[in-house]
Amino acid sequence: MICTVIPINRSDFTFESSFSSIVRTYELFRPEKYVIIHAKFNSVHLEKLKYLFEKLKEKGKKIEMVSTESISDFNSFKNIIDEKTKECEKVYLVPTSGANIIAVFLALLSKENQRYQLVNYIFSFGPWTHFYYPFVPRDLEVAYTLEGKITNKPSLDLNLDPYLERNEFVRNIQMFALKINKKFDSCREMSLKVNGVDILRTWSVNYHETVKLLNKHVFSNEDVSEALLKLSGAYDILVEGKKLEEVSYGRTVVIDTNLIYFGIHTHEIRDLAIPYCADDEILRSVNKKDNPISYIIFYVYQALLQRSKIIPSKLTICDVAIPKIEPDLIKGALVITNDKNAFERWKELSLRSYAEVEYAELDKSNRRNSFAEVTSVIFNMVSLLKLMHEKIPQSYKNSMLKLDIVEICCNKTWCIDVLKANKSDDQKTT
């Protein structure tokens, strides 16, 4: 009998890490029993995991809960786990979603008996922050063990549709990742093809070339091609020459509307604040519907709102509204804009006395070229192109863009046409 012990008591990304750990462990090792160690303050996450546990039970798996309140030290922990897994020949210990002390206990336990094997999952945060497995490509959720390389072939056969987001932009990304994970063991070489042309590849990144190809084969306006790359998160956002992630850590970041168009949703900003004025400007842009981006920006903004906080401001343009935000709401915050004129005015106002005001710009030097970053750009762009295909009326579509086939391709051999909804859409490339 194969078993696993998975704690659910870390202080951040608790649901994401626990869900990923449970599903990755299931597909890799097929445990027959899951011992879930949980803290009382994580009960809300257990409630969200209830459907997943029911799916595992339908597969004949046993789920047993252990409260951290019953654990006082390592010996009590060891006794509980030994008792709960006494019938198990092999026990996989997964510290990924556990607090430090439980992770240490699991590591110590793995040294005491050969039937205990420590397995850890390394998550790719950055542009994939707030996504979790199996709704991210498998290669971004790497499994490690101290006992050697894992050779098990993963097999994902759980119905997890209720965990798909309602937001169409995010839902698209989740569904594409889920399809790829069910079809491929690994997809280390991924590419985006539009109308039969390779637009972007993980193994050879050139965003300047991507803009040219989009302009030639999809859009008639190069500004739209560039705007799509920005919104897809292709570029670093720089503040005083440093990445926004570096200067924003541990502080609230208040953004102007232009940062939304810069793809800030693909950056790992833990405490993001959006003023009401940005909400107003986005809605005004949506109502114009004068270019392909105006048809899809709301879906990105809606997804960003789900992990940001809204702060009150006057319902006028943000150039005017942001300096008038109640000081106590943004005291000590980092306030950023890409509007040079607004920045020059703001730094001369009283706003500068209680918040840090900085100018933000894009770095277009292809530095966002890691596997995690490029796959994020690919999935974001594919979702946005699918939304364009669905949301732009046919009467306008012909003059705005040409979009016949949009494909995510894996390992240079197989492609999935994402515009085909609920169809058998896997096709082999030649």
UniProtKB/TrEMBL annotation:
Xref: InterPro entries: PIN-like_dom_sf
Protein name: PIN domain-containing protein
Source organism of this protein record: Sulfurisphaera tokodaii (strain DSM 16993 / JCM 10545 / NBRC 100140 / 7)
